[in-house]
Amino acid sequence: MVDEDALLEQFAAQFAHDPGDLDDTAGLQDNNDVDGSEAPATFDTTAFLNGLDDIFNRHAAETEAGPYLEQAAVDAENAGDEAGLLTVLNETMGFYRSQGRHKENQWIVQRAIELALHMGLEGSEVWATTLINCATAMRAAKQYDQAEDLYAQALACAQKVYPANDRRLAALHNNLSMLYSETNRLPQAEEELSKALTIIEASSVNPQADIDVASSHTNLALVLLQEGKLEDAHTHAAQALTIYATGKLTHSAHYASALAGFAQVLYAEQRYSEAVDHYRKALAVIAECYGTDTDYYRITAENLREAEAKAGSAADTASAGDTNGNAATLNGTGSTATAAASGSVVGTADDASDSSCPISGLKLAREFFNQVGKPMIVQRYPDYAARIAAGLVGHGSECYGFDDRYSQDHDFGPRFCLWLNDEDYAAIGKQLQADYDALPRDFMVDGQGAVHFTGTADAADDSATADSPATQHLSPTTPRAQGANRRDGVFRIGEFFTSITGYAAAPVQDAPHEWLMLDEATLAAATNGAVFQDPTGDFSSVRQGFKDMPDDVRLSLISKRLGMIAQAGQYNLPRSLKRGDGAAAWLSINEFVNATASLVFLINKPLIVGYLPYYKWQFAALRKLSGSMFALLPDICEQLETVMRLSSAACFGGAGFGEGGKGAAPAADSIANTVEHIADEIVKELQREGLTTSSEAFLEWQRPYVEEHIQSNNPVLRSL
């Protein structure tokens, strides 16, 4: 068999510029002054990235991407735009890696590091990003010593500058796992992948339909296969394919990685005919997305031929596989598929970056259940333990994974929810609630971040050392978290969701009027958090129902958001500013921002990314989504924050106030340009999604095109 070193990672890593991809220097400034005034255009980084996206979207990378990148580097260099040049170099590294142009890439790596140092970026997020890209390029070139050194530097930087809940840390663990795998350090590779999978699953709104989770399962399957853990490898490889099917993600280029990974496992199991089938499907995806003149295609095609030969031999001898009792394996199975490897990875809800006690609410809840709650249930309710669901979902900052030291001054402490069906609740609900209320809640967190609860076998000794943290106690409980509004304890499944949404279960798919009465913040509260166990699947089934917004409803809401963006942002905002009505302009900006943020989540599909939460966490959620490797419209969050930052000067700056003393006019002009730029990006995304054939920039006129895709004739779904 052909050596599969770096088989999947080089191509599943998306050598095109991808939303949140690590081949990105989004933290750099372009040639626009920060006060909104524009310097003469030289090198347009946004236009460059959009052009590169277009090449890959048209599957023209094989012939067009190389010359495009080379010319962009010349243009940025001639313009003296160092930030733009660094962006081009990062993108070029990813493309050259995908094409096997490793010798040329070494020069790009050296140039990128020198440029970043010259720009004074050492210790920044952009520095960490550049180091990861350089390390990945060196690993692909089999320069393992240099790669490991660069990854070590990247990890040291990332741990300081990335938030603790940032998926890019999981991406780094993925990269390290590949390095360990390719240098035959398999236990370390498995450990790094397990860390990455834990982060991604904990942070995912819906792990059963999350493409990053699927990629991590494929990665882990291939390492387990190398370790000879065939049964575990099969489980993870199959789970990856299930996620692609559940999330309706089989159109993704990364689907090829999962198909080829599962084929590799099937080959090892001597199920050659099934391996052939999956290799053929993988090849079809590779050809469409990456072309046939790539290492990825050639290696997969060679493995297909080997599997076909084995399948033919097995048929000739009426044998299911080799007869020596050893599972057949592909030669050189050292690679791990990694759609997440070179992309950003959104953070885990189990970690908080600025916590008064070094633990987030979700992690505390999980540990409280595992150490205290679950043993109590098993001991006192053995006949029901296999029917009780547990987790933390609903209202509260920790349920969104956004809690910090400021949100831990009330309603914070060890807590979880127990969800029972009606029959079990009638039998044990009252007593189970009493036992839950009696659980010990004092806890300590040691220097390694481990949680220890008083009264448990592994509780830390309060007097062990001077460095031991003091026992943590519950923060004050507010009335809004008590009584009928309580946020934890024992619940009937239906009553729990009724308390949040007014519905015991999600409205049926053909009841759009009911769906439209549920605002996104309500749906976010009903579907956030984490489920620690659900043996019967009853709770998860109801929760999933609320995530599965009918597509007609989603399209109807997209149309409504387009209308508000046009009305508030493109029409009323500039008119209000011209007539000097700052208050009206301010409110127009608010409506514009809310509608645009909602649109981003709707375009990315709530089933996959969840819903936009209520205003307090709106931008925290939007930043998190925008940092995801596969986010659509990833740049809009930053642009919305720019609009908000400039709004004070634009609405109330007057002639001599505002940012830099330049008054309202420059800020107003910058806001107007940003609004139109956002509208242009939205139109391009609608076109890419096939929701419009129009290039009309005024978004009100895009609504009929979107509504053409609504299948139902129910008038509630359509505009007048």
Automatic annotation (TrEMBL):
Keyword Repeat among record annotations: yes
Among the Pfam families in the record, one is DUF4037
Keyword Repeat attached: yes
- Residues annotated as domain DUF4037: 515-617
Using the UniProt annotation, give all residue ranges assigned to the region (Disordered).
Answer: 460-485
Q: Which intervals carry biased composition (Low complexity)?
A: 460-471
Q: Which UniProt keywords are present, listed alphabetically?
A: Repeat, TPR repeat
Q: SUPFAM superfamilies in the record, alphabetically?
A: TPR-like (SSF48452)
Q: What is this protein called?
A: Tetratricopeptide repeat protein
Identify the species of origin: Bifidobacterium cebidarum
